[in-house]
Amino acid sequence: MESATQTPVAPSRRGPERALVFEARRLEKVYEMGEVKVTALRGVDFRLFEGEFVVLLGASGSGKSTLLNILGGLDTATRGHVRYHAIDLTEADERALTEYRRHHVGFVFQFYNLIPSLTARENVAAVTEISEHPMAPEEALRLVGLGDRLDHFPTQLSGGEQQRVAIARAIAKRPAVLLCDEPTGALDMATGILVLAALAKVNQELGTATVVITHNSDIARMADRVVHLRDGQIAGEELNAEKTPPEELRW
Amino acid sequence: MRALNHKLVRDLWTLRGQAFAIALVIAAGIATFIMSLSTLESLRYTRETFYAEYRFAEVFANVTRAPESLADEIARLAGVDDVQTRISGQTRIDLPDFADPVMGLLLSIPDEGQPALNQLYVRAGRLPRSADEVLVSDAFAEAHALAPGDMLDAVVNGRKESFRIAGIGLAPDYIYQLGGGATFPDEERFALLWTPRTALATALDMEGAWNEVSLTLAAGAREQDVIERLDLLLDRYGGLGAYGREDQMSNRFLNEEFRQLEQIAGMVPIIFLAVAAFLLNVVITRLVGTEREQIATLKAFGYSNREVGYLYAKLVVAIVLFGIAGGIGLGIYLGKLLSDLYMGFYRFPYLHYVLSPATVFTAAGITAAAAAIGTVRAVRRGVTLPPAQAMRPETPPTFRASLLERLGIQRFMSQPTRMILRDLERRPAKALFSVAGIAAACAVIIFGTFFVDAIRRAVDIEFRFARSDDMTVLFSRPVSRSALYEAQSIDGVAYAEPFRSAAVTLRRGNVSYRTQIEGYRPGARLRRLVDADFRVVPIPPEGLLLNDYVAGLLGVEPGDVVTVEVMQGSQAVREFPVAGVIEQYLGSSGYMALDQLNRLVDEGEALNGLLMAIDPGKSAAVNARLEDMPWVAGVQDTEAALRNFNESVGEQILIFVVFASVFASAIAFGVIYNSARIALAERSRELASLRVLGYTRGEISYILLGQLALLTLVAIPLGFLLGRGLAFLMIDNTQTELFRIPLYIETETYATAGAIVLAASTLSALFVRRKLDHLDLIGVLKTRE
Question: Cβ of B559 under 8 Å from any chain A Cβ?
């Protein structure tokens, strides 16, 4: 087991060997939807360290997806700053954000977002073809336990399998960080656990810093650190002294 | 991007129905364009080749009678290269089993071999060698199934002569074969007969003389200078004024016809292509719009906007290329077909089919640009949203009660009806584009077919309203009033009216126009000239009547003064006030009172012909009597002229209309089918959800197809207006001195266009309905929304 399990509660107490991946300061996000303004984030400070597995826990509408999207360069903040290593994402232009997403971030979405006209292998290849040091699509798919489903189309796969293809697709480029938005939200428990196990395996074997957002507090037990969001603000944060392996989770 | 190429191929396969419809629209636009322009290019090129190979002369002149020796003097004129003189004379041909009178023009050729200029193309047989041999124009030979070896009886200079047909052929100076006084070529009733010179000279009392000369210009010579020198020389011999190719009748009418064809064949395809391009743009924009989530996903994984754009550009290019290739192939095939058909109208010995690369590139370029703009617009719209937002379903828009509901009639509306109305009201741009697309398709059908109505209208006015004579008699030379009395005495002639015509040049400021003035008695009953409101304009005792085309050309209005230069007889130059402007679709003569014209030309009281009303059932008898009269060159039957017009000009344009309407229908179907399919793609989740909630297939079909029906019904009347607008644009550009097309569209044409659009909608609806019956209900439950 890596040192992650022994990390202290507060980030300030981390050892100097744990480099900072993300640092978000006073993030605000306001959506304008026609005549209505919706404030999704109200001054969020957030940090993510290398190799860390963080669960963002919150009810629907708490702002967790918004935070994740801003971290991943899918959306921009209205106010505040996000740094990814040396890059200030809030200052980055479209081209820089594209570069950032292409080489540093992997995404897993609640509804998989696979390209329906491509097979599992091709869906992964669509990403590996544009990255710098990717693993082979087959290797990525074996890592998530789908070595025997390479040439199946999304419609020929179960929801859990589709989500695992999505994970393979996200990690195949060897990203520094993996961002997962309700990855088990559309799955039953048994399938969800398989997906979570795949995420944990990637986190451990590749050391990919991982952020999972969920409204399911049971899943939080597998994280190094749990961040609670409520009403667009951080409502609390805790470290798990001992991580529960996904296989033992129940909900 | 190899993996994405797989996506491309598979998407293309999934979209094959729509892709086919889009390709159909493109192919129709391009095929029309290429078909029309290549036909024009081919006709032009063929004519130029024929002119060059058969030595079409450059300057022409007619005289009453000039001595042989004058030819040498002409050849010595500065600027003259080759000279060819000949003898021409009118004749009347008797065909044993053809009742109508047939006019013939006898033309001399050297006793041995080809003339130096205006050489003959011999299609069958050989050139005539002896006095009783002729070469017959091929159109006439074809119309009467004449072959070399057949005999032909003709009245030459009052004597009946028998000719043996030595050969059948044509010449560059008579590609357009117009008999004296006729408005349109009539291959059944007009023949050209080429015969050896010595024999013809004897028959026409023209020994040692000639009455026609043609010449070519030396390198660098100015045509106008040569014409002036020639006129000076020919003046003593009754010269009617030399003229260049521009005024040579066959060439001039060909120019006019080509110009008209160019307007029709040039404008129709451009409008077709423009409409196709517009529709392509709309369809592509919406098609790529439905890919919004996939675009967002690709972006989330680090694909740049350019890469995503490139991917969709490839998809579009694949579809467009398919259409372009099909369109080019079809266009070439139909272009050859159409050129061949036109060959039947224009007497060329051969046809060179040409298609310039510029035409192909223009067509492909316009299409590709339209597709590219559509793609860029759509992809830009897809990629400007932050991916996080684009991946979410579109924010539920702020719906509200539609206008109709606010009017307080909502209790009569079911929920589905409200859905239709609210959707339309909330997305007016989308609805507008659909309506515009369908309206454009409808307009194109009207635009492609209205010619038939317009021509029928022109014919009705010209042949049934403006002319009430049954027969027009043309004299071989100007004769005195006694001819009128003689004709009136024929049994069966109910009424006869004389006319004369004189070749003139009309001048106003710097603009001049060569035409003829026809003189009628004031109060003439058989010729009715009408104004723009179809009120009869009587022949004024003083002054000149011009039709709107000539008036427009000279820039004159009633009351303005026009200079008339008589090109014969007196050679007088006088000024006349324009007494009125008349509406006329055929021809471009000026009109004045007979007495006034006689005074102007100063050749005494000379008549060129008669208009006659014939008692029912007597026309054959009258014809027979007229044939015995030496001064009768020919007789024109009004009904026959009408038939002839319908067969020549009418058919020419009809051929085009048939192609145009087929393509227009294809465009209509392509557009409507795509609108329906895209609407289905955009709303299938919503509709599947309704199915899950217990709506029947019929009910959800109503929501989607009801909307399509509503849009179609709104679009059709708009399409009518647009079609009329396009028709106006077009006819404004197709007026020629020979024939002008009125803006006239029958109710049936509107009805047909509407019916085609409705049929295309119904067919599209049926296809979409089949898709609706197989909506994936489980899928919509499993994924979001």
Answer: no
Q: Which residues of A7-21 are buried (b: 16+ CB within 10 A; e: fewer)?
A: beeebeebeeeeeeb
| Number of continuous H segments (helices) and E segments (strands) in chain B | 23, 22
Whether B14 shows a pLDDT value over 90: the answer reads no
Long-range CB pairs of B222-229, under 8 A, 24+ apart, other chains included: B222/B79, B223/B58, B223/B59, B225/B78, B225/B79, B226/B59, B226/B77, B226/B78, B226/B79, B226/B80, B227/B59, B229/B77, B229/B78, B229/B79
Structure letter (DSSP) for residue A152: -
The reply to whether residue B1 touches residue A103, judged by beta carbons under 8 angstroms, is: no
Nearest to B14 among A33, A105, A117 (CB): A117
**Residue matched to tokens 């027979």:** B624
The residue to which tokens 């046809």 are assigned: B351
B127, β-bridge pairs: none
Task: Fill in the DSSP letter of residue A163.
Answer: H
Is some CB atom of chain B closer than 8 A to the CB atom of A99?
yes
The Cβ-side half-sphere exposure at B707, using a 13 Å CA radius, reads 29
Q: Which residues pair with B196 in a beta bridge?
A: B109
pTM: 0.70
Cβ within 8 Å of residue B494, ≥6 positions away: B612, B613, B614, B615
Q: Could you say which residues from 5 to 34 on chain B have a Cβ atom under 8 Å away from some Cβ of chain A?
A: 6-7, 10-11, 14
Q: What is the pLDDT of residues B458-487, one digit of tens each?
A: 888 887 788 788 888 888 777 888 888 888
Interface test mutation site (partner B, options A41, A115, A133, A156, max chain B beta carbons within 10 A):
A115
Q: Does B295 touch chain A (CB under 8 A)?
A: no
Structure tokens at B567: 């090109």
| Gyration radius of chain A over CA positions | 17
Say whether residue A16 is in contact with chain B using an 8 A CB cutoff.
no
| β-pair partners for B66 | B210
- Residue B210: name the closest of B85, B361, B380 by CA: B85
**Could you give the strand order of the β-sheet that contains A177-181, starting from the edge strand earlier in sequence?**
A105-108, A177-181, A209-214, A53-58, A225-230, A233-239
CB B197 within 8 A of CB B109: yes
Q: Are B93 and B179 in contact (CB under 8 A)?
A: no
Which of B36, B696, B675 is closest to B338 using CA atoms? B36
Range list of H helices, A144-210: 159-171, 189-206
CA distance B255 to B756: 36
* CA closest to A33 among chain B residues: B395
A206 touches chain B (CB under 8 A): no
Q: B475: part of which helix (H) or strand (E)? A: strand B471-479
Nearest of B74, B59, B55, B60 to residue B223 by alpha carbon: B59
Who among B2, B303, B386 is closest to A75 (CB)?
A: B386
Phi-psi region of B509 (alpha: psi -120 to 50; beta: other; left: phi over 0): left
Rounding to the nearest 10 degrees, give the CA dihedral for residues A171, A177, A182, A185.
Answer: 20
- Interface size, chain A vs chain B, as Cβ–Cβ contacts under 8 Å: 97
Q: Give the pLDDT mean for B518-523.
A: 88
How many CA atoms are closer than 13 Å to the CA of B699, on its beta-carbon side? 16
Amino acid identity of residue B115, one-letter, is P
Q: What is the pLDDT of residue A15?
A: 44
Token digits of residue B457: 């209208």
Of the pLDDT bands very low, low, confident and very high (cuts 50, 70, 90), residue A129 is confident
Nearest to B50 by CA among B137, B212, B174, B148: B174
Nearest to B395 among A33, A126, A169 (CB): A33
User: Beta strands of B596-663 (E only): which ranges?
Assistant: 607-614, 632-637
Q: Give the containing element (helix H, strand E) for B597.
A: helix B594-601
* Residue A184 forms contact with B (CB below 8 Å): no
Judge contact between B325 and B333, C-beta under 8 A: no
Give the Cα separation of B87 and B181 in Å (integer): 20
Of the candidates B464, B452, B555, the residue with the CA atom closest to the CA atom of residue B512: B555
3-class secondary-structure state, position B352: coil
